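User: Quick sanity check before I run a bigger batch. Here is a single chain. Can you write out its predicted 3D structure?
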Amino acid sequence: KRMGARELARKLNVNPGTVFRDLNSLNHAHLVKIVSEDGGRAYITDLDFLKQTVRRLVEYIESGE
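Assistant: Done. Predicted structure follows.
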């Protein structure tokens, strides 16, 4: 579900600054994407990147290296 940082902070009952910092880190790691929504920013999981990363991790584990 797309969610703004403030909305997420309210739902989790945590400091909005912490949420902004953590979302920024997740964005840099390509685990979430920033999308435009109602003139502001919303965040959503980058599911394609996450699936690709998990596939690579499974391949690495199965290779026994």
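The chain is about 60% helix and 20% strand.

User: Great, the batch can go ahead then.
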